[in-house]
Each structure stands twice: as C-alpha cells, then as structure tokens.
Amino acid sequence: MSNMRLDMSLQQRPELQLRLAPQIIQSIEILQLPALDLKDMIEEELLENETLEVRDAPEVREPTPLDRANREAHENEEFEAAYDRLERMMEDEGSYSYARRRPELTEDGKDKKLEALQNTAARAPGLKESLIAQLTFESVPDRLVPLVRAIIYSLDEAGYLLYPLEEVLRIVNGNAECEEPWTTEEAEAAIRIVQDLEPRGVGARNLAEGLFLQIKDDAEDVDLMRRLVRDHLDEVEKNRVPKIARDLGVSVEKVNELIERVARLDPRPGAALASTETYYITPDVMLEWEDGDYQVRLENGYIPALRISPRYLRLLHDHRQDPKVREHIKKKIEAARWLI
C-alpha cells in the first residue's frame, strides 16, 4: 500500500486593487455635473443640511449695545428652538446620510417639486403618440395590435421605418410570450395598417415608398405618377427625362409635369408631427477673443458661495447639550465642510 502525503502550504500573492471610498465616488460625480445640475444639487443640500448656508456680504455698520442685546436674546431663542428641532430629527431620522434627499414641502404638506411638475405645460404629442391615438378609431385585429405598435415605435422622426420589417418581427416574436409566433404575412398586414394612418407616407421603408403612399387614388394621372415614383425615381434624380418618357410612353413635357407634381409631395411625411421641444443651453465655460488672444472663463457666477452656519458651530461646542445631538451636528457639519 503506497503512502499518500497531503501537502498544505500558505502562499502570499501580491495583488494591487483600487477601491474608492464613497466620498471619492461622490466627488467624481460632482465634478462631472454641468453647472445647472450642480446648482440644483447645492439647493437640495441647503434644504437637507441645516448647518450649510449661503454666505452673504457682511454688514459694515458697527452694532450698537441695543443691537447686541437683541441679538443675544434672539440667539438664545434660536438655540432652544434648534435644540428641540435637532432632538426631534434624531428621533425621526437616525444618522445623517449625504446621499439621502427629502422632498421640499409647502406649508400645506405638498411636495414642491411634484407640484411644479404637475403645473408644467405638457409636451405636445409627437408622431408616435398621434399614430397610437389614431388606432382607437381603426378596426385593428387584436392579434395584430402588438405588431402595429412595434412598427409605430420603430419609426424615425421623418416617419420612415428604422429597421427592416423582418427585424421588427423577430424582436416582437422574441419578446412576446405567446404560443403562436407572428408570421411575415401578419407583419405585412400590420405595416399596411400603419401606412393607412395620417399623415400619409408614414411607415414607408424608403423614399420611393413614402412618396408612393402619398399619391391619392383619385389623383390626376395616378398610374403614371405611381410608375414614375416606383420605377424611375433614380432617373429623375439624374435628370434622364428622355429615357423616362420613352419608358412611360409619354412626351418629355408630360414627364416634366409629372415630376413637378411629385416634387409637391413631402419627402419627410412625419416631420410635421415630430417633437419640437426647445432646449436651452447654459454654458459651463465661455471662450472669448480678447486683446489678440483667447480667454477662457468659468461660468459659475450663479453658484452660491457657501459656509458653515456659525450658529451650529456654537451648538457643536456647547457641552451642555445631549451627546447624540452633538454627534448629529458634527456629522452634518462634516458633510457641509466636505461639500464646500
């Protein structure tokens, strides 16, 4: 019987790992904020952290004895009120967390941000919303509704299908939980439903199809116009009018007349209903030409100057108060100092 020996040994293997402290991560996030987002974040922090305040310009006037007496009485009242408030906060909140955010409430207890959102004018419905709304007035078979909606949401702002219909069908079949997958024939039926919606021309897969869909059945020379768009659009772009005239069996003058009618059609049929939101840009940095050289200026004039509240600094060093309250103030002052 052979002897078996099990060797166990400890080995040290040097590894270098980079682990970022939460404050470092928050610092990186703040450094990446645009100026307006930074301003919003500071305003939220001013609401959250009572030890943080905006630095105002100091008064030059020398205080009188009456001013000092009134200020001392006022500070005593504020001290008692702040002490009671901090004790309640300690009971309700527990320890302070920088990442935490509370909604700003009005006097009647409503969320100011939510109220502002509710009072903001709603964005005008775009192309996709308009097409979806039209479906309520159409007799769409229930089975085709998912396909129709998928096609609508696959349109670009001009109203054209962004992806091949086969790709849209594959995605819908892959995401749906149904025993019987949709077929290519059903996909074609679904896109015809979309193409029957207004504005005419949406749901097209290319420019020729978009123009073709806009030609009405009762239009003058409807067959010639459709043949021109379907078969000779490339030749129209290359101005091969004589060749088009020979193929259509009409005169050159007639071809020019047909081209003029086609030119009145909309090559971007969905653009009229596309979202037209206006976005205002506030720069973080200004680059200006001054005295023969470029000058770079940081646009931070609307970022408030911050400081630690002197009132809470005095509360922190007041040994008469509860140690829990002092610890709470200390954490908030540390968070405020770190933010500054």
Plain-language structure description:
The protein has 340 residues and is mainly alpha-helical. It has helices at 22-31, 35-48, 65-93, 112-119, 127-134, 145-152, 165-175, 184-195, 207-214, 222-231, 233-237, 241-248, 252-263, 310-316, 323-339, and strands at residues 52-54, 285-290, 293-298, 306-308. A two-stranded antiparallel ribbon has the order 1-4. Strands 2-3 form a two-stranded antiparallel sheet.
Describe this protein with a few key phrases.
mainly alpha; single chain; 340 residues; two-stranded antiparallel ribbon
Question: Mind sketching the topology for me?
Answer:
Layout: H1 22-31, H2 35-48, E1 52-54, H3 65-93, H4 112-119, H5 127-134, H6 145-152, H7 165-175, H8 184-195, H9 207-214, H10 222-231, H11 233-237, H12 241-248, H13 252-263, E2 285-290, E3 293-298, E4 306-308, H14 310-316, H15 323-339
Antiparallel strand pairs: 1-4, 2-3
Helix pairs in contact: 3-15, 6-7, 6-8, 9-10, 10-13, 12-13, 14-15
**Assembly state here?**
single chain
Sheet with the most strands: spatial strand order: 1-4
The end-to-end span amounts to 75 Å
Order of helices and strands: HHEHHHHHHHHHHHEEEHH
Average pLDDT works out at: 78
Global Rg: 35 Å
- DSSP helix fraction: 40-55%
Percent in strands:
5-15%
Number of helices: 15
Low-confidence stretches: 93-103
Pairing-aware structural class of the strands and helices?
A: mainly alpha
The outline comes out as elongated
Number of strands: 4
Biggest sheet details: 2 strands, antiparallel
